Amino acid sequence: MKVLKFGGSSVAHADAIRATQKIVASCEQSVWVVVSALGGITDLLLEASLAASRKDAKYQELLKEIEVRHLETVKALIPPGNQAAVVGEIKGQINQLESLLEGASLIGEITPKLQDGIVSYGELLSSFLVAAYYRSEGMEAGVKDSREIILTDEHYGSARVQQSATFKAIAELKAATEGILVFPGFIAASASGNTTTLGRGGSDFTAALLAAGAEAEILEIWTDVSGMYTANPRTVKQARPIPLISYEEAMELSHFGAKVLYPPTIQPVLERAIPIAIKNTFAPESAGTLIHADGNPEGRTVRGISHVPDIGLLSLEGPGMVGVPGISMRFFQTLSEAGINIVFITQASSEHSICVGISQSQSKQAEKAVNAAFAYEIERGNIHPVVSETGLAIIALVGDQMKEHQGLSGKMFSALGRNNVNIRAIAQGASERNISAVIDQADVKKALNTLHEAFFEEQVKQLNLFIVGVGNVGARLLDQIRRQQKLLKKEMQLQLRVVGLSNSRKMNFKTSGIDLESWEEYLGEGEEADLESFFQRVSALNLRNPILIDNTASETVSSTYAKYLKRSISVVTCNKLACSSAYENYSQLKSLSRQYGASFLFETNVGAGLPVIDTLKNLVLSGDKVRKIRAVLSGSLNFVFNTYNGEKPFAEVVGQAMAEGYTEPDPRIDLSGSDVMRKILILARESGYSLDIDEISNESFLPAKAQAAESIADFLQALEAEEDHFAKRYEQANESGARLKYVAVFDSGKASVGLEAIPEGHDFYNLSGSDNIVLFYTDRYPEQPLVIKGAGAGADVTASGLFADIIRVGNK
Ligand code: ADP
Ligand code: ASP
Ligand code: MG
Question: Edge-to-edge, what's the strand order for the sheet holding 546-550?
């Protein structure tokens, strides 16, 4: 014999009920069926009873809604010819329910006893309706009122079951009946015949009692998910069903919030070694979860992750607590007398503080009781008034075998720490089967996903990207990400998701990842761009492994980095402004990055995609010392001086460089040398020198008029007028067989930039196109420098440099 329980969503509407009928029909042995109220009905009943107790006529509307839901379900399920009797019975029950609600409304009050009477109609109606439908499908199905066999005390709302009397009644029922019986879940009765309920979610428990009392072969819990998952599948998308689990582990998971099973359910079946299957009514072919005694044959450590929301912390502290016996005893006794359930006790950090976790709804009451109990000590200043905090949650790792393994809690806390989840308290293992921590409610989703990633998806790490700037470089980057996504996941176990996008006009977000085939449309549909609200959104989303990517050249964007780093959000940028700003600002960003464990990477600030900064970092980290740097760092100036050969005027060559996208939108930034100054500044700083931009000498090759130009147009005009100046410079170099290169030098702590005539045979002589070259002279490379050379400008190489930084964050 089997006991099958169908939860609220499995009987919520006609199609669901049809699915349950097919499941029952496919059983070969005799079956008892337990049903919950139609999904949502218990909530409506509770709402109606509260409305009635406030004398609010809204209860009548709610009652109507309840009636209509049931009648419509009947009409959809049962052939018209057979409907009359069923409709009649339902209307009769609704009338009785109405009288109870009227009663509550008349006296303007609701007692727990009356409330149980009212909510019991959810299951009374559903069990009747389901059995009537089964019969109309030709099954022999009767209804058995659970109140006749499940006996409880009168603790209304969550009555305690008297097991031996209950089991006896069940055994007798089993002996006396055959065929299919449908039972209302959740409801029971006291010895004096009053209706009681077993607590929210209690239909699971009804089914467990029936299975134990009737010594069923198996208890099947049919619900709306395919088993008990490694974490709540509604919060953790990557969660997956646990095929096999032990009773103890399942109990622990359900105690810690896995609502799929009501916690008391396991005890009665465990005692009789009856296995529990958790199955999906809407996907009966999926294997689901089997809970039984040998549920962990492979000895796995962490089986699941769960959380308990709405937790409050209560701490009692004071100088008068040290060495005074009996204080904790009084504290706990006070809470117990006030009916407050202690969810956990946290590790006391010192002798003069006690801290407990309780249900947030009882915080006020607990605070009052404790302050009253210690009024004397508080008045004398020996103990401080109790400190109560709310808005917290417990997250827990659960598994039988965890106690035998070291390092799990270290892994748990470091994963949370890396993701900026603040741990408020460590809950002392209520059992050896879990490790739990108290965190802010707002961090729950991120924490669950972080832990799930750390313990169940070790292979795949998700990086959540927030991209500002989708111009030339940004668009290429998005394209590269789109093309590499699959491969990165397969080869490097990195999953890249672009969650936020912004340009200067619009911004848009999508937690599950923006489709990179159509990001332009998606961005177009977004809201008005605003850097502050962008930051607020990124923070509020609170995702794990977040990265801000700045593809702009904007100072307003670069001035926001500190805020992100302080939230442990990594920053990857091709914008040079932050690293070439005041030394103080640069070094603050570097230290925030260390302090908050967030990467701050800017490889593309020098030499676009060339691995210049990364190489330099490795040199310095491995103990080498940079003495001198000589470099050609401007793709744009290279292009200009490689193209200028006295034939075309200089101004025209600059115009061509602009048109081909080799310069900044304002060519003065390149031609004045400021761009190169910034780059050599960054290299010097990364080599460990504290330098500022105004300490770099820059002897401009531009004539005075061009230097003074106030607009781009004026500037180009000045270049045209001064063609002679440039031609002379070229001729001089040419005559001595040299070529003009714009060179940056850092030597003995000093930096300079300027145009040089480079003789044949020199490392810089053959530099073509937009190539960059950097020579590092270090203690290990004193004579023959370490050389890095290659294309140092262009949107594509810059985007791939950014991409490499993103991967570096991922591999950290
Ligand atoms: P029923 O109405 O069938 O009793 P419940 O809503 O009580 O269903 O329980 C099923 C729900 O439990 C799922 O929809 C899911 O959101 C939630 N849940 C929470 N934790 C877990 C978990 N670890 N595994 C599966 N489901 C879980
Ligand atoms: N209908 C009740 C509830 O919603 C019992 C159950 O569904 O298990 O809590
Ligand atoms: Mg349930």
Answer: 527-528, 506-509, 494-502, 461-468, 546-550, 570-573, 600-601
Which residue intervals of the chain bear CATH 3.40.1160.10?
2-223
- Kindly identify the ligand whose nearest atom is closest to the C-alpha of 203: 2
Domain 304-456: give its CATH code. Answer: 3.30.2130.10
Structure token pair of residue 736: 């001595």
For the CA of 123, the nearest atom of ligand 2: 1
**Residue of the CA atom closest to atom 8 of ligand 2:** 201
Q: Which atom of ligand 1 is nearest to the CA of 304?
A: 23
- DSSP type of residue 759: P
For ligand 2, the distance from its centroid to the CA atom of residue 190, given in whole angstroms, is 19
Question: CATH second-level architecture of 2-223?
Answer: 3-Layer(aba) Sandwich (3.40)
CA separation, residue 588 to residues 147, 558, 583, 594 (Å): 69, 13, 8, 10
Query: Which residues, at least 6 apart from 301, have a Cβ–Cβ distance to it below 8 Å?
Result: 399, 401, 402, 404, 405, 408
Sequence ranges of the chain with CATH classification 3.30.2130.10: 304-456
The pLDDT of residue 693 is 96
What topology is assigned to 461-608 in CATH? Rossmann fold (3.40.50)
- Tokens of residue 764, six digits: 């810089």
The pTM assigned to this predicted structure is 0.71
- Binned at pLDDT 50, 70 and 90, residue 352 comes out as confident
Give the model confidence (pLDDT) of 378-412 as tens digits: 999 999 999 999 999 999 999 988 877 778 888 99
Q: Which of 679, 705, 728, 750 is catalytic?
A: 679
CATH assignment, 612-791:
3.30.360.10
Question: Taking each helix axis from N to C terminus, what angle separates 14-25 and 112-136, rounded to the nearest 10 degrees?
Answer: 60
CA-closest residue to ligand 1 atom 1 = 7
Confirm whether 64 is a catalytic residue. Answer: no
Tokens of 366: 């607990």
